[in-house]
């Protein structure tokens, strides 16, 4: 019953976080203006804050979901959406486009993400077998490689372009204006994750045991990888590499006693979404009118929270 | 029920099973004996459909295992595997409930699944621990919960890889009695890898011995487990101690 209570609290937190995102910012807007929004107020609300809040929520949810999926797939508690090099690939694409002065930064990031996904997948297959251990190491190695490329591009970049690049890398929602793609990805991967919740539960206790309990392990693993990759790519394209959401949100929920994926998947979506929405709201209002990258806030808020819960947890976890 | 034709198993550089033809029937309780690395686990995996054999076939009621859909197969054949590193963070009952996975319920376990899981926990004497986190239990208690998960799966054929690991003597006895009952009274087939010859000779009606080079012999326990066959199998000297509860084979020191 504890997880049910938690789920309903998170269900309340979600609209609260979105309302907070709509109401706060450098221009003071009241609830009344929110509802009969016209003129400048309406413009600020519906063309700036609403899409940004919708993007933030979808991206946070996608990253948390991706973290849940990858932690099952790789059976590693440290797995997070960036482990498989997808965000690294996207960053190389985006920064490359910025360096060359191309306008299609998003498109280049998409290309980078897809390239990295394919590369990791191709390299982690050997002799018809797909080992998760191999997948993990391939992802880590490629991420390190992408990291080096990113550093190289940063060192080559002219001073004027550096700021934009760094913000992209830290995760920034100021240019997030098209939440449609992220929401579509969230709908697809979230419902897949929820429908496969029992399969995820079984896979989490071991590949061989899952097989003996009737799970078609390889297709399931391929599906999880695909869903996690799509979720990560969709989030990274919208808001750059926002760290810690994918790692921290699933663990926070587990520390709070949510173990079954039937609850973990929807709770992670709600908490991840609310968390990033609130973090982004803070990021643009703490030292307004100046804006901080949301990725910095997620880490600054998430790390102490996780450490606190970890330290007061008994041996059960 | 389950049969093999010319089953051949090998790992790189080693033949583990040569041309095995075997038939397992309902109501039988089998012991699988052999030295470390002789291929007991590999044989169990092949018989339960977890691994493809290098050659030959395993059939369940005449159908090759590979042709049976996994979930359907899991309702007929269950396996207790040697302990894997399980990172399961939930309660014991939730762990046992995963054993109900092959039985239909898609999203959440239903009332009958929960009843079956509770019954299974009670059968291994772990009913009181259903709300406890699996990770907080001792090795032996965890082993009994793992057995309960298999009981909840309720297959027709049970493959048990070292079911007695981590168990104290009274619980070893209880588990052996439980599976003998499952075979003899409930008409299921039980196949277990054991290291203790005494338990094998006292509780199993059939034994299968895996010798070096993949030479396998099998038959009724009384013929298969004697001082001679055991000395031959383990390549060490035994002394036989006869008691009213059966024969003990003790390794001698010289």
What does this protein look like?
The complex is a heterodimer of chains A (317) and B (254). By secondary structure, chain A is an all-alpha fold. Chain A has one domain: ABC transporter involved in vitamin B12 uptake, BtuC. Chain A is 76% helix and 1% strand. Chain A has 14 helices and two strands; from the N terminus they run αααααββααααααααα. Chain A has helices spanning 2-23, 31-35, 39-73, 86-99, 105-124, 132-156, 159-170, 179-195, 197-203, 207-212, 217-239, 245-255, 261-285, 294-311; strands at 125-126, 129-130. In chain A, a hairpin with a 2-residue loop joins β1 (125-126) and β2 (129-130). The two termini of chain A are 18 Å apart. Chain B is an alpha/beta fold and 254 residues long. Chain B has a single domain (2-223), classed as Rossmann fold (3-Layer(aba) Sandwich), CATH 3.40.50. Chain B contains nine helices and twelve strands. Chain B has helices at residues 40-47, 70-76, 92-97, 111-123, 139-153, 169-184, 197-203, 221-224, 227-234; strands at residues 2-11, 14-24, 29-34, 55-60, 63-64, 77-80, 157-161, 189-193, 206-210, 216-220, 238-243, 246-251. A six-stranded mixed beta sheet of chain B has the order 6-7-8-3-9-10, with helices on both faces. In chain B, α4 (111-123) packs across α5.
Q: Main attributes?
A:
heterodimer, A: 317 residues, mainly alpha, ABC transporter involved in vitamin B12 uptake, BtuC, two-stranded antiparallel sheet, 2 strands, 76% helix, B: 254 residues, alpha/beta, Rossmann fold, 6-stranded mixed β-sheet, 4-stranded antiparallel β-sheet
**Form type of chain A:** globular
The CATH topology of chain B: Rossmann fold
Structural class of chain B: alpha/beta
> Multimeric state of these chains?
heterodimer
Approximate helicity band of chain B: 25-40%
CATH topology grouping of chain A? ABC transporter involved in vitamin B12 uptake, BtuC
Main β-sheet, spatial strand arrangement of chain B: 6-7-8-3-9-10
User: What is the C-level CATH assignment of chain A?
Assistant: Mainly Alpha
The CATH homologous superfamily of chain A:
ABC transporter involved in vitamin B12 uptake, BtuC
